DNA sequence: AATTGCATGTAACAGGTTACATGATTGC
DNA sequence: GCAATCATGTAACCTGTTACATGCAATT
């Protein structure tokens, strides 16, 4: 049920349409909580039904409309309640470590491919998050700017500090994953070397 | 769809019942892939329908039965295919970092509570994984023992090495999370101190 | 006039969670 | 005789994914 709070967090910076939210999901909050558009639109409806947000229809051109959603007082309270409630941690479900635990069942080559892909995967994430960190420092992220615009100036440093803190955590996590997989590559090589010592294949 | 491969991984050490598997999920593979019993029994049926496993009914007492599942050749091949196929990474969906990004919306006290809980959460995981590491070193984990029993001795070191590698990764991840949250606590304190410098509350 | 981007959704399905439901066996 | 635990599931629900579906507006 975090989707609704991710949406509320964005909407608390000011009204946005489903489409706006969808885009933000791919660049800002999407870095910590992915959601496809097919999930966002129905959820917005439910949030409206629950009184957390209020739609405002806007005319676009001759016949087009777009719906801007405003956070209601109820919605604001719901967000703050969530912030102050114990977080529900998700059960572990980690395909990479699941596979890692059984790498002995495949060849060193396949193990290497798996580990290289793991490194690639996390390097991509790392790149995104590092870029986001520099954007935060430059106060260049559109959502952060929106957020600061509706925040008293005395709170600006705090707001930025927590965003930075969040992305620092993500960056460290990515680095940890990469280092782990790199040690895995060394392990695969070491095991292969040991095996070929015991049973040389290419020798006479 | 990793559940089925987690189940196959366990069954490849020899036949087990749904109940056995359920227990293993809470102590071995469950450390990387959680699954409740209500998911395991239906999945075993589907795996039987798909020809990956073969049930063997066993009499228990006068009327009780238990069903042992054996991996078929098809099942074995399916597992190895999975091992050699690109891993499907899950989209990021991280409630802790989502909340961290908006900690400025709550009080320092609530932020502290959140961070302390995060530390507690990961310390629990860390403890489990560290215990598992010592069990691996002592060759004391029942599933590892089963696994080694059906593995040629020349492969024992490899098998143990990858298990160790897996849990080392989990341990590092937990440590990274804990360190991050501890830095978060310092940040909250620092921000509170700065705020009370600018607007002293307890003073005359 | 065509392309890109804005804007809104529906439907079918897969995967996972929670709660419910039942009964037998074994050890004390 | 009772408790623990072995052993098997069903049902309803929620969340998320993938694919499909439509059409206007602004720019080139």
UniProtKB/TrEMBL annotation, chains A, B:
Superkingdom of origin organism: Bacteria
Signal peptide range in chain numbering: none
InterPro entries: Tscrpt_reg_PadR_N, WH-like_DNA-bd_sf, WH_DNA-bd_sf
One Pfam family here: PadR
Domain Transcription regulator PadR N-terminal residues, every copy: 7-78
Name of protein: Transcription regulator PadR N-terminal domain-containing protein
Organism: Subtercola boreus
Lineage per the UniProt record: Bacteria, Bacillati, Actinomycetota, Actinomycetes, Micrococcales
């Amino acid at each position: 049920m975090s989707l609704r709070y991710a949406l509320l967090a964005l909407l608390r910076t000011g009204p946005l349409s489903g489409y706006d939210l969808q885009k933000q999901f791919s660049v800002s909050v999407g870095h910590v909580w992915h959601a496809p558009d097919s999930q966002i639109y129905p959820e917005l409806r439910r949030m409206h039904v629950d009184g957390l947000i209020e739609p405002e229809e806007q005319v676009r051109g001759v016949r087009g409309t777009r719906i801007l959603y405003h956070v209601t007082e109820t919605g604001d309270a719901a967000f703050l309640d969530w912030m102050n409630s114990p977080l529900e941690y998700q059960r572990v479900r980690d395909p990479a470590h699941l596979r890692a635990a059984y790498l002995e069942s495949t060849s060193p080559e396949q193990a290497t491919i798996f580990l290289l892909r793991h490194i690639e995967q996390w390097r991509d994430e790392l790149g995104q998050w590092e870029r986001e960190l520099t954007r935060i420092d430059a106060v260049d992220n559109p959502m952060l700017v929106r957020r600061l615009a509706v925040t008293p100036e005395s709170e600006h440093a705090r707001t930025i500090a927590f965003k930075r803190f969040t992305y620092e955590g993500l960056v460290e996590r990515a680095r940890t994953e990469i280092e782990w997989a790199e040690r895995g590559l060394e392990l695969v090589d070491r095991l292969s070397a040991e095996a070929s010592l015991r049973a040389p294949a290419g020798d006479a």
